[in-house]
TrEMBL record:
Keywords: G-protein coupled receptor, Membrane, Olfaction, Receptor, Sensory transduction, Transducer, Transmembrane, Transmembrane helix
An annotated GO BP: cellular response to lipid
Gene Ontology CC terms, in alphabetical order: plasma membrane
One Pfam family in the UniProt entry: 7tm_4
InterPro entries: GPCR_Rhodpsn (IPR000276), GPCR_Rhodpsn_7TM (IPR017452), Olfact_rcpt (IPR000725), OR51/52/56-like (IPR050402)
Organism: Chelonoidis abingdonii (Abingdon island giant tortoise)
SUPFAM superfamilies: Family A G protein-coupled receptor-like
Membrane topology: Multi-pass membrane protein
A GO MF label: olfactory receptor activity
Residues that span the membrane, as ranges: 38-64, 76-101, 113-135, 156-178, 218-237, 258-278, 284-305
Gene3D superfamilies: Rhodopsin 7-helix transmembrane proteins
Subcellular location(s) of the protein: Membrane
Record-annotated G-protein coupled receptors family 1 profile domain positions: 56-305
Protein name as it appears in the record: G-protein coupled receptors family 1 profile domain-containing protein
Length: 322
């Protein structure tokens, strides 16, 4: 194998000579090309984002767990969202910081497959939790008299378990579908972490089955969830328009959920479109969305929910003051 380094240290040109059976043992992750000389300073905001995401979601989990008055459906669902956000931060940011702090770009195939499994699993679970939160808003506004009888803790636990099982069943085949391939093309990924749609393009084989299954998984998980969330808000708005001030006040409690939905789905949809239909002119947008859709929601969600929920905000202030 002949390895030729270009003048730009972030670019690698690898060519296989008379060895079509060669298989890479590592992938190379990509930071921000052309900014290698300021990687240390770039790492500072990422470190802050990591700390704020971990601390913010951990505080919310701690307060909801220790305060019996917060053991209500809305806060139980918020704790589920915090768990998935914690998982996404722990799964993705370490490899990003390894690039910016230590210039460590290599990741083994098995580690890459494990990372993409957890990333897609947690994304699917977060999508499911956002759907459950939309259902919570729908019941609270459209059928408030039966709210406590419909969303009981045992029923919420079963719905949460169903979300996990659906994610595991649909995402578990992904690393096994990739592991059967040999990888002999250029092994440089365009992100600082591994995702399925990128890794499968590195395979030296027909990826039609993988592509179909990947698209089907996205449609079954996030596509179906986003459609049901949209329909929930259509029903909510219809009820609010036909009702009085009480429903308007109830709608205000759903604003934070709407923020979370937009933060999660818009970058995800945009990045999926770019990966499948984008061209060279969309590389900058791909980098921005690639960092945004995995790093910003875990950072912003705790802040938004803390600001919009007076009850939760009062408990957080009390913890830090005492």
């Amino acid at each position: 194998i002949e390895i030729v380094y270009n003048l730009c240290p972030s670019t690698y040109i690898m060519s296989a000579v008379n060895d079509t059976n060669f298989q890479f043992t590592v992938f190379l992750l990509t930071g921000i090309p052309g900014k290698e000389d300021i990687y240390f300073w770039i790492s500072v905001p990422f470190c802050l984002m990591y700390v704020i995401s971990i601390v913010g979601n951990s505080v919310i989990l701690f307060i909801i767990k220790t305060d019996p008055s917060l053991h209500e459906p809305m806060y139980i669902l918020l704790s589920m969202l915090a768990i998935t956000d914690l998982g996404l931060s722990i799964t993705t940011i370490p490899t990003i910081l390894a690039i910016f702090l230590f210039n460590s770009r290599e990741i083994s195939l098995d580690a890459c497959f494990a990372q993409l499994f957890f990333i897609h699993l947690l994304q699917g679970m977060e999508s499911s939790v956002l759907l459950l939160m939309a259902f919570d808003c729908f019941i609270a506004i459209c059928n408030p008299l039966r709210y406590s009888s419909i969303l009981t803790p045992p029923r919420l636990a079963k719905m949460g378990l169903l979300c996990v099982l659906r994610g595991v069943v649909t995402v578990l085949p992904l690393p096994f579908l990739l592991k059967r391939f040999q990888y002999c093309r250029v092994n440089v990924l365009s992100h600082s972490y591994c995702i399925y749609q990128e890794v499968m393009k590195m395979a030296c084989a027909d990826i039609t089955v993988n592509n179909i299954y990947g698209v089907s998984t996205v449609l079954l998980n996030m596509g179906l969830d986003s459609l049901l969330i949209f329909l929930s808000y259509v029903m909510i708005l219809k009820t609010v328009v036909m009702s009085h001030e009480e429903c308007l006040r109830a709608l205000n409690t759903c604003i934070s959920h709407l923020y979370a939905v937009l933060l999660f789905y818009i970058p995800e949809i945009g990045l999926s479109v770019i990966h499948r239909f984008g061209n060279s002119s969309s590389h900058l947008l791909q980098f921005v969305l690639g960092y945004f859709y995995l790093l910003v929601p875990p950072l912003i969600n705790p802040i938004v929910y803390s600001m919009k929920s007076k009850h939760l905000r009062a408990r957080i202030i009390r913890v830090f003051i005492n």
